Amino acid sequence: MKKPIPTLAAAMFATILSLPAAYAQGNAAQGEVKKIDASAGKISLKHGPIKSLGMDEGMTMVFRVKDPAMLKQVKVGDKVEFEAENADGAYTVTKMQKSK
Predict the structure, then answer these.
(1) How confident is the model at residue 87 (pLDDT cuts 50, 70, 90)?
(2) CATH of the domain at 73
């Protein structure tokens, strides 16, 4: 009798390893920095749809930032790729990096 457990375990492991990348890609949104308010820990972004927040259309809005150090890495006019979540009723950028 064959032991399918190692094969099944390997397949499950490969699937689990691929989930974070797929999850991250689905949550990323594209935007442009319109305003930075470092003292308040906020950033204004003109962005496209953010499916993870139920936003099917783009708009310009103000977000809080999870880590104020993120604001030092960008300037007004920069194109960014970011992830955001609804944390305690406030839209908060959790990850952000410059994009092309």
Answers:
(1) confident
(2) 2.40.50.320
